Amino acid sequence: MDTSHEPPAGARRGIYIYGTDGSRWTDFTSGIGVTNTGHCHPRVVKAVQEQVAKMIHAQILLVLPQLPLDLAAALNEVTPEHIDCFFFSNSGAEAIEAAVKLARHATQRDNLIVFQGSFHGRTHQTMAMSTSKTIYRQGYQPLPSGVYVAPFPYAYHYGWDEDTAVDFCLRELKLLLKSQTTPQETAAMFIEPVLGEGGYVPAPARFLQGLREICDEHGILLVVDEVQTGFGRTGEFWAYEHAGIGPDIIVMAKGLASGMPLSGIAASKALMEQWIPGTHGGTYAGSNLVSLAAALASVQVIREERLPQNAAAMGERLMDGLEELQGRFPMIGDVRGRGLMVGTEFTLKGEPSKDMAKAVQKACLDRKLILLTCGTYENTVRWIPPLVVNQQQIDEALMTFEEALASVV
Questions:
Q1: Domains of the chain, earliest start first
Q2: pTM for this one?
Q3: Most buried residue, 20, 231, 284, 288, by CB count within 10 Å?
Q4: Are the beta carbons of 154 and 375 closer than 8 angstroms?
Q5: Are the beta carbons of 322 and 398 closer than 8 angstroms?
């Protein structure tokens, strides 16, 4: 979209973007979960502008600027006590790759376990770990080996209640460790606390707690992929906090720098010290000072403006409104989510309906509300507005969604 007719520089855009004719569009995609602080938050813009004038790139192996240290310190305040070491990269896929390499060095094991519906990236390694859609892997075989897939407790898909789904999936995971990859050769389990591309399905707390117990029992590392769920998106700073667990490695990106390219992993110093120096790195790893400045400002804004708390409150309002609409529009088969990471799944005659989801999405776009779809069957409309969204804006989006639903029935 051409945005040459936006408001004057410095104006706070929040949840809105603007067309060439000056028209205003409501963005409930956040650039796919990136602009958690809203479009062009003044503090983030100021940090970027000031840093560009000072220095743009400082290769961290040659010089040690203050910014990566300040960002690590800020992140250290929002991670568990045992996690105190950080490695920065450019993208979510790079961060997942880093976590894989760290896990393999630290455990001296090779295999990985992921969960059905996962999305971890588009590099060869991360494609092998992604099972949400075939399109992400199509035409790129063979992919790296040593990746095993366990079921995810997607209760609505199975047609079960949550407890039944959790019990089944934990049993199947234990079976996988007996039948496909032994604990002694399994380095790590990678889990999205809320499936992203797989349909915006939250992992129940008891399931994540079960993973933690199994990993502890066998010396397997638990890696939480918070690329899309982190930085306040689900109503807590990290989505794993809903389950009260402590991961071994946290993977972060998207909301970290409000749109500037930056990702990272976090782990304990004891774990990081198992990484053989020189076996991982990159020219831009922790070296783009503009991205680091944006990230530091973003973390400060998220905390000081209490955006996780706003996400929790506005997410509850959004869920209540969508559930009310579900009662009147039965093609909405399920409404689920945490905070401002919400999915509405469409079904017709008990089957996934991509056509209905896409028609509703298009009807919303015609009304200047931008939404995305996701899910293996592409039948889930996902709601990911910037975390600065307010009550009036939630209500307006729900009204638009209701009009869109009525227009396609």
A1: 16-33+306-408 (3.90.1150.10), 47-304 (3.40.640.10)
A2: 0.95
A3: 231
A4: no
A5: yes
